[in-house]
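Protocol step 4 of 5: obtain the predicted structure for the target chain.
Materials: sequence only (see below). No template structures provided, no constraints applied. The aim of this step is simply to have a reference model before the mutagenesis design in step 5. Sequence pasted as it appears in the construct record:
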Amino acid sequence: MDITEFFQQSSGKWFSQRTSHHLAFKQSESGKSNLTIEILPKDDPAVVKLCQQYEVDPALALCGARVSWDGTMEWDEEKHAGSTVLVPIADAEKSNEGKLLREQGYAEKAPVAGRYIMGSDDALTLITEYETMYSEERLWFASPNLRLRTSILKRFGGFSMASFCSEIRMGGAQPQSTIASTTAATSPAPTEA
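Step 4 output (structure tokens):
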């Protein structure tokens, strides 16, 4: 699986349950959220705009995704909601690694570019270094409708946090990958016998 297929498989609506361990405080908290992941074609205006913002040729974009979330954490009652656009740009030398452009980071609300590595085990690792912290996430599918995610967040000179999420697909999945849809659109229609 490549990152485009991983994004495609992730499209739809998900219910996410998270447990976070705050290592400095020796405490854990749980949270839940609804996620919506929409695949964007590489010529989508939001993908082109994000590439231009990072001074990357939009033709190098593999695809795009708009991720929206709405959830709560146990320690605070306030809603955590937002959305961001993600665009993977493959390395010239290694097709399974590259840059991941983000309209907005999860840990900090500023635009940030991270790195991605698509493993031979079909797990996606995302590494983001902010000015004040380091984030590493690993995502994989236990089944087509169950996605798992682990993450660590290290603040420079401060606390660290580790999280585990299970995400269950609640619907809205696209039936075929973009590649399959493109092939189907260009293949001759089957004839009836």
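Step 4 remarks: The radius of gyration is 18 Å. The beta strands are 12-22, 27-40, 64-73, 76-90, 97-102, 112-118, 124-129, 133-143, 146-155, 160-171.
Proceed to step 5.
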